[in-house]
């Protein structure tokens, strides 16, 4: 496996040098799309892709994601953001305007099992996931060689209930040092404290080895086998202080039978976990996921 090389990154940035995104949500009312479209036209921007959704046309929330091309976007972006503020205020929007070529600074947390980490690194290496993977943090040493072979810094920080606050203080220091914008829990088998989660709202993506809301918490495959389920699955979601109950981004399932014992369920499950987490991360990085309370709108 080789890392995303400089030539690949250069091609990506050249291709998307003038590509931007507007992502917003607000109370639904007439005129939102017209106002945003007119704004882009006035700034000589051409709409490439547009997705919208209203949770309730009468009184619900409106969600909009637009990709656009705009000449000299890098130079214009600060003035475009300033010019958009009156529209954001008029419609009481939560909004952001970003450059596609500006990669998200990302940290991956992992414990012993490497399958989700490997899937993310493969997708990153192939250019399917475009992110600036700044570091990998782990409470075990097992994945060090995999990570360091790609030139990615690896940090081993032991974590247990007795030293959780100390461990998280060290983790937060590193996250701040690298200006991390996204944290991916790639089978990181530790519960995060309320303080850690509060410091990173809707910026922590987890993979849970169950089709939530079934089998929340530990040992879901063992409990699924005891229950005699015929389907197993995996769920990727944003982390909140309610264990495994954050807004769901992506899920998938696979059929199983009474012939499949726990080890076989885990083998099948690992494949589902890998693909579900990779898709969720990709959609987040592309600003396709908008949080609506404890739900998400995903423009896939």
Salient structural properties:
four-stranded antiparallel beta sheet, single chain, 13 strands, Rossmann fold, Alpha-Beta Plaits, 9 helices, 2 domains, 300 residues, 36% helix, alpha/beta
For the record, the CATH class of the largest domain is Alpha Beta
**CATH H-tier superfamily of the largest domain:** Formyl transferase, N-terminal domain
- Helix-strand topology string: HEHEEHEEHEHEHEHEHEEHEE
Please count the beta strands (DSSP E, at least 2 residues each): 13
> Over the alpha carbons, how many angstroms does the gyration radius reach?
21 Å
Low-confidence spans = none
Sheet with most strands: 7 strands, mixed
Shape: globular
- What would you call the structural class? alpha/beta
Let me know the average pLDDT. Answer: 92
Distance between the termini: 28 Å
Total number of distinct structural domains: 2
In terms of quaternary structure, what is this?
Answer: single chain
Helix content: 25-40%
Strand content: 25-35%
**What is the number of helices?**
9
Question: How is the secondary structure organized here?
Answer:
Layout: H1 6-15, E1 19-27, H2 32-42, E2 46-54, E3 61-69, H3 73-90, E4 94-99, E5 105-110, H4 115-126, E6 132-138, H5 144-148, E7 154-156, H6 164-177, E8 182-185, H7 194-198, E9 204-208, H8 220-227, E10 231-238, E11 248-255, H9 262-285, E12 289-292, E13 295-298
Parallel strand pairs: 5-6, 5-8, 6-7, 8-9
Antiparallel strand pairs: 1-3, 1-4, 2-3, 9-10, 10-11, 12-13
Helix pairs in contact: 4-9, 8-9
């Amino acid at each position: 496996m080789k890392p995303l090389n400089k030539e690949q990154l250069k091609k990506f940035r050249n291709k998307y040098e003038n590509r931007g995104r507007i992502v917003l949500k607000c109370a639904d009312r007439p005129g939102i799309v017209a106002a945003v479209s007119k704004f882009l036209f006035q700034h000589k921007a051409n709409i490439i892709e547009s997705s919208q959704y209203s949770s309730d046309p009468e009184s619900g929330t409106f969600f909009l994601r637009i990709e656009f091309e705009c000449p000299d976007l890098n130079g214009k972006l600060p003035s475009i953001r300033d010019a958009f503020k009156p529209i954001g205020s008029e419609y009481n929007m939560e909004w952001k305007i970003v450059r596609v070529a500006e990669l998200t600074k990302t940290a991956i947390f992992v414990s012993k099992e490497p399958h989700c980490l490997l899937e993310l690194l493969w997708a990153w290496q192939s250019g399917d996931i475009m992110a600036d993977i700044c570091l990998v943090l782990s409470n075990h040493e097992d994945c060090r060689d995999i990570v360091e072979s790609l030139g990615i810094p690896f940090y081993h920080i032991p974590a247990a209930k007795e030293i959780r606050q100390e461990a998280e203080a060290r983790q937060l220091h590193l996250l701040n040092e690298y200006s991390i914008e996204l944290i991916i829990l790639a089978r990181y088998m530790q519960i995060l404290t309320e303080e850690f989660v509060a410091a990173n709202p809707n910026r922590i993506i987890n993979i849970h080895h169950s089709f939530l809301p079934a089998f929340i918490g530990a040992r879901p495959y063992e409990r699924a086998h005891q229950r005699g389920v015929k389907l197993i699955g995996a769920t990727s979601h944003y982390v909140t202080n309610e264990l495994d109950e954050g807004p769901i981004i992506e899920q998938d399932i696979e059929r199983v039978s009474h012939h499949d014992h726990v080890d076989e369920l885990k083998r099948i499950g690992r494949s589902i976990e890998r693909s579900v987490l990779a898709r969720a991360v990709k959609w987040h990085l592309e600003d396709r996921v908008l949080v609506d309370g404890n739900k998400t709108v995903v423009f896939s």
